[in-house]
Design brief:
Rossmann fold, 6-stranded parallel sheet, 22% helix, 7-stranded mixed sheet, globular, alpha/beta
């Protein structure tokens, strides 16, 4: 195909400001990079944290977006994993150093010198983007471009959070029923888990959505479920949910904090943590998480629910997500 010299992109010039539609040069793929024509890009809560200035070290000006599905249109020097025409997914983790203690210990998600798509390198709120081929994924044929996009972050982080829980756990609470929870519910229910969904108080629409996807029970985050839970995952960036979730766990229960940013956690009595309850956070992803999820997504099969927007309406998409009025995920179709 003929590759144009310029492209449209939505650009963050300064935190706490709207994105601006710009005409920019199409990037040239570097060593072992792919030039990808973006077909769809999910709008993630992490994008909100970057735009709102809660994640404080973005590359500026920045093209956000890290749930990217697109077509390879050019390969850089040494790039051999994918060929022109292949459909690939590009996630949050853009590159790792490969030689720090964490990379050498197979904990690349904790790399000391990583690059992050749509944060420290330009992302997918654009017609084209360049990415390291070693951090790209083949996308299941069973999903359309827009349906696959939320897997690239919401899916990956939700799946990593889920796999951090002991396999013997049967009853699992999910706090914040957005993109990650609606994907994870389908996987967990397929594996025979009992899912308890906690939404914003009074959000009947989200609660009905959770039940529709297989949740055993759904109510507001202030409610007490009908049984104590083996584990819980918090996707909502609300620190006060930590003691609330601990309060509904069984002895030995596990609490996973699945977000990259959370408001301050209030103090709570030690009795909530006692009896070998535990709290863990999830940081980024490992590539093997992504490979596993892509296989699982085909087997379940996962069906993502999306609200599509054109690229030029990215600010409207961000606003809708910020208002918490989304069933499933918001995706830019490009």
């Amino acid at each position: 195909m003929d590759i144009p010299h310029t492209m449209k992109a939505m650009v963050l010039e300064k935190p706490e400001n709207e994105l601006k539609l710009k005409q920019l040069p199409v990037p040239e793929p570097g060593e072992k990079q792919l030039l990808v024509q973006v077909l769809a890009c999910g709008v993630c809560r992490t994008d909100l944290h970057i735009i709102d200035g809660e994640l404080t070290s973005p590359k500026l000006p920045l093209i956000p977006g890290h749930e990217i599905v697109g077509k390879v249109v050019k390969t850089g020097p040494g790039a051999m994993r994918f060929k022109t025409g292949d459909r690939v997914g590009i996630p949050w983790l853009g590159r790792t150093c490969g030689h720090c203690r964490f990379c050498l210990d197979q904990k690349e998600n904790l790399c000391d010198a990583p690059l992050f798509t749509g944060y420290t390198v330009d992302g997918g709120f654009a017609e084209y983007t360049a990415a390291d081929e070693n951090y790209c994924f083949a996308v299941p044929d069973s999903l359309s471009d827009a349906e696959a996009a939320p897997l690239l972050c919401a899916g990956f982080i939700g799946y990593r959070s889920y796999r951090m829980i002991d396999e013997s756990a049967r009853s699992i609470g999910l706090y914040g029923f957005g993109a990650a929870a609606h994907i994870l519910t389908q996987i967990a229910c397929r594996e025979g888990k009992k899912i308890y969904a906690f939404t914003r108080p009074g959000d009947i629409k989200a609660q009905n959505f959770a039940r529709e996807l297989g949740a055993r029970w759904a109510s507001g985050s202030e409610a007490t479920p009908p049984e104590k839970l083996d584990a819980a995952i918090i996707f909502a960036p609300v620190g006060s949910l930590v003691p609330a979730a601990l309060n509904v766990l069984k002895k030995g229960g596990e609490l996973i904090c699945g977000g990259i940013h959370m408001s301050d956690i209030p103090s709570f009595p030690y009795s909530l943590l006692w009896e070998e309850r535990s709290i863990k956070s999830v940081a980024n992803l490992q590539r093997r998480d992504g490979e596993e999820l892509m296989q699982v997504a085909q087997k379940v099969p996962v069906k993502t629910r999306i609200i599509p927007f054109p690229l030029r309406k990215a600010n409207d998409a961000v606003t809708l997500l910020k208002q918490g009025k989304v069933e499933g995920a918001v995706v830019l179709e490009i």
